[in-house]
From TrEMBL:
Gene Ontology process terms (BP): biotin biosynthetic process
Descriptive protein name: biotin synthase
Xref: InterPro entries: Aldolase_TIM (IPR013785), BATS_dom (IPR010722), Biotin_synth/BioAB (IPR002684), Biotin_synthase (IPR024177), Elp3/MiaA/NifB-like_rSAM (IPR006638), rSAM (IPR007197), rSAM_sf (IPR058240)
Pro residues: bias regions: 52-61
Assigned protein family: Belongs to the radical SAM superfamily. Biotin synthase family.
Originating organism: Thyridium curvatum
Obligatory cofactor(s): [4Fe-4S] cluster; [2Fe-2S] cluster
Length: 414
């Protein structure tokens, strides 16, 4: 026991209480509401050495503009809070609501997206998907970012190749499965499937083979109609990828050979056939944040949310019209992922092209904010990809694990 404590205990209790009662009390002027609102760590006024209190801060002028601003902020916070409290997906979002979420302070947005993620998904589970280009180059479309368009072939040097054989595709799928991938995606540089009966039959055989390996099968073949979607469904296709790329408004600056509505029609055929829709966008095309909100609005207001939403960061390819573009800011990528997680809580959010340029810490931040799928393997369609060993090591360091095949329900069943 310390000396001061024993001294205190030796005094009679009544004399201690009397001394305490006689001690002069300091009185403070009541703290104004304004001063309290400005307080941070210290919320009582300090006296100067001379005992004179500092002058109160000048009153905040309340103009109609500041009141309007405060009201806007209050509404945005309410929209954000309601969205984060969701227990089921909704597809009646307005652009204003999505903007209110998208522009929240980034750390708070990422944190809340991660919290919501845990309500709909097993935290730390990430789907491993491998992509194979089954038909490279020779595409007649003019997508400004793409190395496979014949229009930019002189600059990119990517020539048209023949379609891969079923056997070679299944061999690649087997290798992907043995390395831990559970979804195999096959991409072909075609505008659409009109007049490609044999090719579609070949693709159907690939899909059957991939499914027989116990993997989820996904294809991206350009525009398809209802009958073609039905044929792919019959073969056992799990998902069809067809990105809308960006907002409806910005889209014509990127592609002129097919319309936004044509893209949406293909998504409709896929959905009607009972195949999961995989549809996302590319960031860094020169779009504004309003366009990123527009992209999110398009996919989150489809009749049902896409099962998968890939977020690509443009990989500028020399020889294409966008070959010299600066990389998109990571904060825009993170903001898009976090907003997507909040407005499409049951969807798989896929970090797609451009991951190769992201540090492991940046990827971890994306996983924390709700991303739960990656492409892994040797290559994306024409660009580099992080390999299995590299991703495996990253998973070990961050405590991530691979999602099993068919583990995730579609958003409609969530
Ligand atoms: S993105 Fe697809 S449709 Fe567009 S040019 Fe490339 S391969 Fe063709």
């Amino acid at each position: 026991m310390s000396k001061s404590t024993t001294t205190f205990l030796r005094k009679p209790l009544s004399s201690v209480l009397l001394a305490e009662a006689r001690r002069p009390r300091r009185t403070f002027a009541p703290i104004s509401k304004h001063a309290r609102s400005l307080a941070t760590q210290v919320d009582t006024p300090r006296s100067t050495p001379s005992g004179i209190s500092p002058p109160p801060p000048p009153p905040v002028e309340t103009t109609p503009e500041t009141l309007e601003q405060q009201e806007r902020e209050r509404k945005a916070r309410k929209i954000f809070q309601d969205a984060v409290a969701a227990t089921a997906p909704r597809n009646n979002w307005t652009k204003e609501e999505i903007s209110a979420i998208y522009y929240q302070p980034l750390m708070e947005l990422a944190y809340q997206a991660g919290t919501l993620h845990r309500r709909f998904h097993a935290p730390g589970e990430v789907q491993l998907c491998t992509l194979m280009n089954i038909k490279t180059g020779g595409c007649t479309e003019d997508c400004s970012y793409c190395a496979q368009s014949t229009r930019y072939q002189a600059g990119t040097g990517v020539a048209a190749q023949r379609v891969a054989t079923v056997d070679s595709v299944l061999e690649a799928a087997r290798q992907a499965r043995d390395n831990g991938s559970t979804r195999f995606c096959m991409g072909a540089a075609w505008r659409d499937m009109r007049g490609r009966k044999n090719s579609l039959r070949n693709v159907a055989a690939m899909v059957r083979g991939v499914r027989a390996l116990g993997m989820e099968a996904c294809v991206t073949l350009g525009m398809i109609d209802g009958a073609q979607a039905a044929e792919l469904k019959e073969a056992g296709l799990t998902a069809y990828n067809h990105n809308v790329d960006t907002s409806r408004e910005f889209y014509p600056s990127v592609i002129s050979t097919r319309t936004y509505d044509e893209r949406l029609r293909t998504l409709g055929h896929v959905r009607d056939a009972g195949i999961n829709v995989c549809s996302g966008g590319i960031l860094g095309l020169g779009e504004s944040s309003t366009d990123r909100v527009g992209l999110l609005h398009t996919v989150s207001t489809l009749p049902s949310h896409p099962e998968s939403f890939p977020v690509n960061a443009l990989v500028p390819i020399k020889g294409t019209p966008l070959g010299d573009r600066e990389p998109v800011a990571f904060t825009s990528m993170l903001r898009t992922i976090a907003t997507a997680r909040i407005i499409m809580p049951a969807t798989i959010i896929r970090i797609a092209a451009g991951r190769k340029t992201m540090s492991e810490e940046k990827q971890a931040l994306c996983f924390m904010a709700g991303a739960n799928a990656i492409f892994t393997g040797e290559k994306m369609l024409t660009t580099e990809c992080n390999g299995w060993d590299e991703d495996n090591a990253m998973f070990g360091r961050w405590g991530l694990s691979a999602m099993k095949s068919f583990e995730k329900k579609s958003p409609e069943e969530a």
